[in-house]
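Can anyone check this?
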Amino acid sequence: MDTYGLLGRTLSHSCSPAIHRMLGDYSYALWETDPDDLGRFLKEGSFRGCNVTIPYKKAVLPYLDDLSPTARSLGSVNTILRRPDGSLYGGNTDYAGFSYLLDTQGFDPAGRKVLVLGSGGASATVQAVLRERGARTVVISRSGPDHYGNLERHRDAAVIVNTTPVGMYPGNGAAPLSLRDFPALQGVIDLIYNPARTALLLEAEALGIPARNGLPMLTAQAYYSSRLWGLTDRTPDDIAPLTARLAFSQQNLILIGMPGSGKSTAAQELGAALGRPVYDSDRTFEQAEGISPELYINRFGEPAFREKETAVLRRLGALSGAVIATGGGAVTRPENYPLLHQNGLLIRLCRDPADLDISAKPLFHRPDLAALYEERKALYEAFADVSVEGTCTPEQIIDAAKTAIGRPNEVPQ
């Protein structure tokens, strides 16, 4: 049996095993446990150490024999160590993880009003760190004096931290509130990391507000958990490059560009080079509808096709760690951008219109490429996180993607 792992209710999309594989040579399992089985798991399990996530960070407390000072003061545990005598020691490395996120992302909460969304175990930890740093914290929950029905009282908030699961996979697209109601906002943190950009973070991006997801906190708390278990020889300096490595592995690489720019071929080559699954939105459409996009457009019109294409992109965009080739017109609908960008890096393949190859398309659907290029050029530029020449090798595209995510040459193996 695995002796280290993660305890929670629903864990199939957790990034924790990937992080712990990078931290040391030990196995790390996912232990999905029902509430009725929690006590038996803790008392009778053979694990040596485990992390704890939603919804058990407070529920485990009655089963523990001792607590770290931080865990005791917070009433929240995310790391458990089984001592040699069998007793269970509870710690809270989320505190160090959130502190790390603040230190590295430039969010200084001192003297500022910070809205903390949610009142669970993660919220308690976040509040403690913020108070220590001089913030004026206000907890927003579904009940109590400050709730989602009277947010107008807090239009002067400078920072918002989301500790709720609203917007987490598979509930992509949901947000606990709208940032447009907070004109003084200077920063947003969402502890969710799947998708990489929740609806809250995408709105922050659109408004030009500095924002960050919870991946640095997740990596940091995992590092300090591994330290507590005595399993890693990494140093705190490794946390940032480990986070970058994980971000690159989890995000989709999404190819956009003109018809005939080589997106499908490049996607297959990238998938082979990285060992990732490959999806082509046009082929996915054809498999679902039993007809090619070109024939569908000819029969039902382009607006009808674009509606169905958006439904395809919604499914593909919610994936993680895939390579996705999109149709040339995916950029023509603004609603497709958040669907693709929520968990993906958008890579534009650039080719001169004279070099585009659309010979495989039916004669009735061969557009004027020069005119189409001028029509869509600004759209491709607006969607793209990074642009590369269509003649780039897979390795060059990968390097460009890593550079866009950060620290491409500092990631430890």
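Reply from J.R.: I decoded it. The domain at 4-95+218-236 is CATH 3.40.50.10860 (Rossmann fold).
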